[in-house]
Design a protein that fits this description.
By secondary structure, this protein is α+β, with helices and mostly antiparallel strands. It contains four helices and eleven strands, in the order ββαββββαβββαββα.
Length: about 210
């Protein structure tokens, strides 16, 4: 089935609708949904859940990425983004449970793909063992969860690898390095993790 995306100019003015492949080939601005699952465990440690992308993804196959993310189909609203959480992670949540962090702008070139995105970013505070997620095996290889403090050390270059618990990957535990994640040219992941800690500490009205 052909996917159609709404496309925009650099000021987010809607300028039309295009097929997914053409949008990524032509470098059209389009909107996507990002949801980062975080929680404070019973041990008092702050955790973040991330997915491992499937091997057949057209960009960055088999790398760790945002907990749940996806494109809006043409005509969809921001509230429709919750579909990605429900489908990819297989957990029952509503849009009202999400914590909005604002918007992140991303422009990445990958092989012959020119991917320009306005990303609507959310936290979801959801404490559940990742082995109990009914994640979408057609899209994801599996899930990992690790402490946010360790993640900050990894992405700031203080350590070269961190321990994580895994589900669906054939092992219960593994060490992961920055090279195992979708590469980024900015500090987006660091900012999200910092905001997650602030939110779990009781701060509100946080923005990227």
């Amino acid at each position: 089935m052909t996917e159609l995306f709404d496309i925009y100019d650099e000021h987010q003015v809607h300028i039309g609708v295009k097929e997914r492949a053409a949008v990524h080939h032509d470098g059209d601005w389009h909107k996507v949904f990002h949801c980062w699952v975080v929680y404070r465990g019973s041990d008092g440690i702050n955790y973040i859940v991330m997915q491992k992308r499937g091997p057949d993804k057209d960009t960055y196959p088999s790398l760790f990425d945002i907990s749940a993310a996806g494109h809006y189909q043409a005509g969809e609203t921001i509230e429709d983004g919750i579909r990605e959480v429900q489908e990819e992670l297989g957990i029952a949540v509503s849009f009202d449970e999400l914590v909005p962090l604002g918007q992140h702008t991303s422009a990445i070139q990958y092989d012959d793909i020119d991917d320009r995105q306005f990303c609507d970013v959310f936290l979801l505070i959801h404490e559940q063992d990742i082995n109990d997620y009914n994640f979408q095996k057609e899209e994801l290889d599996g899930l990992v969860v690790f402490s946010i403090a360790a993640g900050l050390k990894l992405f700031s270059g203080q350590v070269t690898s961190i321990p994580a618990r895994a589900a669906g990957l054939g092992v219960d535990k593994l060490d992961i390095s920055e090279a195992d994640f979708v590469p980024r040219t900015d500090d987006y992941i660091i900012h999200v993790m910092q905001l997650a800690i602030q939110y779990l500490n009781g701060e509100r009205n946080l923005k990227l």
